[in-house]
Design goal:
By secondary structure, the protein is α/β, with parallel strands linked by helices. Helices cover 24% and strands 24% of the residues. The longest helix has 17 residues. It is elongated, with a radius of gyration of 22 Å.
Length: 184
Amino acid sequence: MITDLTAYLPPGSFEHAQSADGMPTIYVRREHLVETMRALRDTPALRYAFLADIVGVDYLPREPRFEVIYLLASLGAPGYGEAVKRLRVKVRVPGEDPSLPTVLDVWPAANWAERELWDMLGIRVDEHPDLRRILMPEDWEGFPGRRDYPVQIKEPVKTYEPLQVSEEEFVANIEASRDRSRKH
């Protein structure tokens, strides 16, 4: 299956292919990402017309540090491929230059996921029209999806509504719950 697939891809665009867990996977060089994705979508024999998700992974201390994974599907409907099939496309992204090109021209649905790559991992998506925080506040420092992100938060908890019960009532409720569970 993978060898058939790679025959349709631009020459030199992929590093290698594998299918260890049953889902076909190809590694694509980041400089060939857009043209490879376009070929996967537009080649009639392939027709990976649906981008299901984009996920980033930090493999610190390994270099290249990051991998960005694109999950694609061919729908198996008239005009959208001959059979239902899935494909995992991985792109290695170095830690010293954490960037890759946008695939918005191929799949407009990539907008949110590309912004999430930036927000959580600090992977720049070049030529993205609205690359800004999407989950974290605009003034947040750092990227919480990175393995070297400090876990301890040094800010006091902000509460905007008063608690429904006092601290003493809360502790008493917890202790009563523990007493009930010990009896059973």
